[in-house]
Amino acid sequence: MPRTLDPEVRRALATRIRYYNEMGIYDFYRRPSAATDVAATIAVDEEEEPVSANAVSTNYAESGEEMSPRKATAVAMPVAVDENIFDAIALKPEQSVSDPVKALKIIREDLGDCTRCVLHKQGRKQIVFGVGDPKAELMFVGEGPGADEDAQGEPFVGRAGQLLNNMIKAMGIEREQVYIANIVKCRPPGNRTPERDECATCSPFLMRQIAVVKPKVIVALGAVAAKTLLAMSASMMQLRGRFYDFRPAGVRSNDPNWDGCKLAVTYHPAFLLRDPRQKGEAWKDLQMVMKELGMKAPQTSR
Ligand code: SF4
Q1: Is the Cβ atom of 202 under 6 angstroms away from ligand 1?
Q2: Ligand 1 atom closest to Cα of residue 198
Q3: 125 Ramachandran zone, left/alpha/beta (phi>0; psi -120 to 50)
Q4: What is the pLDDT of residues 190-211, one digit of tens each?
């Protein structure tokens, strides 16, 4: 018979589960235990999710090989736990809200003046949450804010942003019709590449944004975005040129008609500024996306 939890233990348990939620872990399962065993074990079994739809893992390697499926971990709890506590906490607050604008606002409020990773104390001016149509069919995900984005609080507003705007225009749509966000929401100092643990800490909020926007296609801009979203480590050459089935890890959609989307990988606009010869390749990627979305490029594009 489950025992009623002491309020203090209950609070501590709630804090612990919130911590796992923020790390992108939401599914908790109770292992059957012997009647004499007072310790209930809660297994966090992430292998239930398809490998193709994973978010970031904290132990992936840059070896160029696909990441191994995430390992199950177990957390021992002191007493049998009434399941309601998990149901209540595992449910994302925005999931009970049908208006995506309000739902995104809830996620932003949840993020708060975030200090979850070291980027909060490395010179960021502000958190760059995301921008665009909260019901967009197409979503672009970059790596992290640069100096201009940090100053203006909006992703892709510098030179790379101008190029992204041109790429979007070439597809026959406007920037306002897509949703744009980054893997990390604070500027890494000196525009360095975000560390894996920073991506792992921040990306659960992006996953929640994706689950709210419910795009039909996500375009991962550059290797960091691609590797984090797909939990794969491979070269851009290997990652580009195909669609992946994607579901935001750790978040269940509250929409029975949306169970994930397609994800394509292309070059980051900042890379294209450095190596404009690759623009043709990026255009091929975008044409693949347009075909998937049934879009036709305007005659004057490119
Ligand atoms: S990068 Fe993300 S997790 Fe890190 S401090 Fe900024 S908002 Fe928080």
Answers
A1: yes
A2: 4
A3: alpha
A4: 999 999 999 999 999 999 999 9
Distance CA 53, CA 74 (A): 22
Give per-residue burial for 142-164: e unless 16+ CB within 10 Å, then b: bbbbbebbbeeebbbbbebbebb
Q: Is the CB of 185 under 6 A from ligand 1?
A: yes
Task: Record the tokens describing residue 194, joined without a space.
Answer: 């975000």
- Give nearest CA residue, ligand 1 atom 2: 202
How close is the Cα of 198 to the center of ligand 1, in Å?
A: 7
Question: Cα of 117 to ligand 1 centre, how many Å?
Answer: 5
Write the CA distances from 125 to 122, 184, 257, integer angstroms: 9, 14, 38
Can you list the positions of beta strands (E) in 198-266? 217-221, 244-246, 261-266
Q: In what order do the strands lie in the sheet with 138-142?
A: 131-132, 179-182, 138-142, 217-221, 261-266, 244-246
Threshold 0.85, pTM exceeds: no
